[in-house]
Every structure is written in C-alpha cells, then in structure tokens.
Amino acid sequence: MTTLPMSLPPRWRWPLRIALALSGWLALAATLTLPDAGVPRTLVVCVFLLLCPGSAATRWARPTPWHAKGWPFVVETVFLAVLLSLCLAVLAVEPFYLSETFTTARVITTLAVMTSLLALLPTPGSRRPGVRGTPTDDAPPASGARPGPATDTPPEPRTAARTAPGTPPARPRSPGPPPVDRVTTAVVGAGPYGLATACHLQAAGVRLRVFGQTMESWRAHMPDGMLLQTLPAASAIAAPRHGYALGDFRAARGLTGADDRRPVPLAEYIDYGRWFQEHLVPEPEPCRVRRIRAEEGGFRLLLDSGEEPLAASVVLATGAVPHAYVPRVLRECAAEGLASHTSRHRDLRRFAGERVAVLGAGQSGLECATLLHEARARPTLVARTSAVVFDPPPPNGTGDRSRLPGPGSPLGRGRPLLATVSRGGAAYRRLPAPLRMELLRAVPRPAGAWWLKERAEGRFPVLCGRTLIAAEPGYGVVRLRLLDEHGWPEDIVVDHVLAATGYRVDLRRLDVLDPGLRRSLRVFAGAPVLTSGFESSTPGLYFTGLAAAPSFGPLLRFVAGTGFAARRLTAAVTAGKRR
C-alpha cells in the first residue's frame, strides 16, 4: 500500500516547537484583552485547549518520525493529542476547583507553562551519541538494534517475548480449532472480576472451568465490621443481562434500605457474591492453582488436587492481595512481626489495649483506625496529606447524585479527574506509561467514605503532614521516626504498625505463574503490558482486575470496572477461538 510521507523538513521543526511554546501565552493574552463573549477569544482559547498541550506532550513523549507512515498513524496521533489536551486541562482545573480559586486565566496560565516546557524540552530519544535511550511502549526498535530485557525493550505486538534458557516458549496462535479433550478457558479467581468474566464467557458459549473459592479474598482479608466505601449502585458485579445488581439481591432477600445512603456491610456483600455465582457462574472448583506454565498447545495448570488440566487460554483474576504494598522502611519490622499490611488481619480485636500506628489517609487507613478504636485499641493515624478528607454524602436516598458539584463518574460525582480517566479505559491505555502510572497513583485522592466521618473524627490522634523515614524495632515495640511538613523530626513508639498503603502491581509476587513464563512477559513498572482485549504479550494469557489497572486506569481498582473488563476480555477470547 502506498503511504504519504509525513515528515517535516528540519528547517520547520524548531519554528513549530516555538509556535507551540507561545500558543498558551497567546491564548492567555486573548483571555485578558478580548471581550468575554467574543468569537475571536472563544476560538483562540478552544483551539489552544483542544490541541496545543496534547500536541506538545505527544511530540515529547512519542518522538517517532512521521516518514513512511500512513494516514492511520496521523489520525491516531491527532486523537492522542486531543485526548492528552483534555487530560492536562482536567489536571490543571482540579487544584483550583478543589481550593475554590478557579478562574479561566489561572487555568490557561498553568497550561501555558506546561505546553512551553513540553514543547521546548528535548525528547527522551534525543540523547547524546553513545548513550542508549529507552524506547517508549509504542515506538518500534531501531533498525539493527539488539533487543534488551523484556522490561526495557518490548517485542513487536502479537509476538512472543524472548524466554529464559530452558523455558518452554510461549504458545503460538494455532489457526485450527482447539482439541476437544481440553478446556477452552480457565478462570483463576472467583472474586468480583473472576465472576463477572466467567458469566460473560459462559454467555458467549465458551467452555470454561473456574478455580477458586467464591469471594475468598473478601472473606479472608477484609476486617470484620467493614463497610464498602463505594455507593451500592457502584458495587454491582457486571452480568450479561439485567437483574443481578446489588439492589436486585437486596430485593430478592427482602433486605430494607436499598438506597445509596445505606452503606453495604462486608457480610452482606459476600452473600451477594455467592448469590451472583449461584445464578450465573458454574460452581467454582475450590482447589488451588499452584502453578501455571506455558506448553505447546496451551497452558498447563498444576492443581493442589494433583490434576494437571490443559487450557487453551487462562484468565488471571487473582485480586489485590498478592500485590499488597508495605513500604521498604517497614520491611525489618514486618520480618519481626511488628508491622503488617491491613489485608493480613481479619479480626482487629487482637490489638485490644495496644498502641497501633496506622499509615495512610485513605478509606482503608481511616476505617482500620476507627475499627481499632472501637475494639479498644489505641490507634494513631499517620498521614502524608495535610488534612484528612471525607467524601460528601449522596443528597437523598434515591441514589440520585445529580446535585453534587462536578461531573459524574461510575463512583460518584464531584471528582472531575476521576470522571475523565474512568470513562475512557481504552483511550487511557494509549497514554504514555509514566503518565498512566502517575494518574493511577493520584486518582482518586485519599479520602474516607461519608458514613465514616462521624465515627472517626475526634476519636483518635491524627498526625497529618508526616513522612515516615525510619522504623526501628526493639524490645517488642517500634520507634517511628517522622518528619513533619516543616522538616522537623518527631518520634513515636508503638506496639505495632499497620500499613494501609494500598496495592502496587508486581508480577514478581505472583507465584502462581511459572518463573519462566513470568520472565517472558512484557512489563512496565512491574505490571503486565496488555492489549485492548486484556491479553498479555504471551498469547492466551489474560489479566483482569487490579493487574490491569496500570493499563486501563483507576476504574479497574473498583468493582465498578467489572463490566468494562468482562466485555472486552470476552470479545478477545471469542475472537481468538475463531482464528
């Protein structure tokens, strides 16, 4: 196919970069000098907001030359520039919106500074001769270059990555139908994401087996007395047909108060998961999958029952627990049993009478500190944020959140950035990897649920603006060295440290994968690189839930993302069957 050369002469490149750098200041001048409702001002500002910040970011993050590229590449680049412009605009608006200091001039000034920096900074690929740069996810390797490790230089899409010596190669796509003596798909995990995926695959006619105990992580790793942070309307497991939302379960069981002002108790949600499974999902096999390895024709699953079934494809829905993150400074204390992640404790009454430091200002930290206080322990909340924040309650009992300020999202209203990144998972995947990871870290901001505020405020000490720099175990206690926001040191002594520090995807912790298979996967920041259908670089191996959040956004950290994930993954699996 003939393509149109799209490269620009070198003499035009610097003038275009300078024009991009000045575009924001031109828009600011138009904002300050032209009439408010004038067409010239509106036109200049809109063109800048929609194109210029994203164009500068695209030029900096994806310095792929346009020569020998056709119009699909041009369209993709323009689409990515518009998407990045909108994301950067939301990032600029958010601080002013939250601090109630929003003005158009301030936002445009912020974006003008971003655009100028991105336009004038040298691209990551333009390094001095002799220094080897790291290619981006989307840039092809240089001609004649030798491939590096799987984490640095990914292979071309739809090709198997280089495996370690002695490791069976990843299974190539077979053009013929799978053998009749094997299962088509194995789903490993029976939590919300595993159940949603399994029922969508079954509805599509895929032969499958589901391994794991229903809602096991929720039963074994969530504290007694916990309530869900998300609204009931956002806590439903996605089904291929109507009638299986949390409200339908409450109606079927005759439970009262089925509105968004009644938080969901943990025990009720576990019962809902079992009810969902009984109606829509084949009975999960309670045996544990000990190891998954790639073989010719599929994947071999080693079960603790001794069985070794072969599956054409495998969906890993192992949840968040394998990726529990404990800060490095606490590793020595954890080895001595004086520090642990919140997911390790079902019954917090074991800490009665003890001094416990809880690290984190999100829902997990605030609720654990509250439950510890109610269990007659002596908790102290330690947070890096300058203040503890609680989400506003829904305005009434009907689930209508339209009167809350800000755009809507699957998790509620009043969160502009969350609304942007949660409604465009497919587009989110096209963002540069560093930006995706930063958004995943920062969105949504740490906050407690609306119903927790009355139980938590004033009940236990809260140290805000503190950074943990050292933890010294000794004589059955832990001495924590903190720095306040002014840099002054402060020490506290506690009997135990609970890390409510969330989860970070790291495939090295996923012991269920054979080491050779794990090393063969393309990764970035510890997370698997996934296609738009949630397939990894090893054909037939899929990831969903938290492991897919670095690719598709913060929505995959919540149950509200089960619909998006299950539909896309099912379409990819069924398309693979037809090939």
Write up this protein.
The chain is an alpha/beta fold and 579 residues long. Helix content is 35%, strand content 14%. It has helices spanning 10-33, 39-61, 71-98, 104-120, 192-203, 216-221, 246-253, 266-280, 331-335, 363-374, 416-422, 425-428, 433-442, 453-456, 515-520, 549-552, 562-578; strands spanning 183-188, 208-211, 289-295, 298-303, 310-316, 339-341, 355-359, 378-382, 408-409, 412-413, 462-463, 467-474, 477-483, 489-494, 496-499, 523-524, 527-528, 541-543. Strand 3 and strand 4 (298-303) form a beta hairpin. Helix 2 (39-61) runs parallel beside helix 4 (104-120), helix 3 runs antiparallel to helix 11 (416-422) and helix 5 (192-203) crosses helix 17 (562-578). The relative contact order is 0.13. Mean pLDDT is 81; it is low at 1-8, 63-69, 125-181 and 397-408.
Low-confidence stretches: 1-8, 63-69, 125-181, 397-408
What kind of sheet is the major sheet?
Answer: 6 strands, mixed
Overall outline: globular
State the helical fraction. 25-40%
Which value, in Å, is the CA radius of gyration? 26 Å
Annotation field: number of helices:
17
Structural class computed from helices and strand pairing: alpha/beta
Q: How many runs of DSSP E, i.e. beta strands? A: 18
Q: What is the CA–CA distance across the termini?
A: 25 Å
Share in β-strands? 5-15%
Looking at the chains present, what oligomeric state does this protein adopt? single chain
- Average predicted local confidence, pLDDT: 81
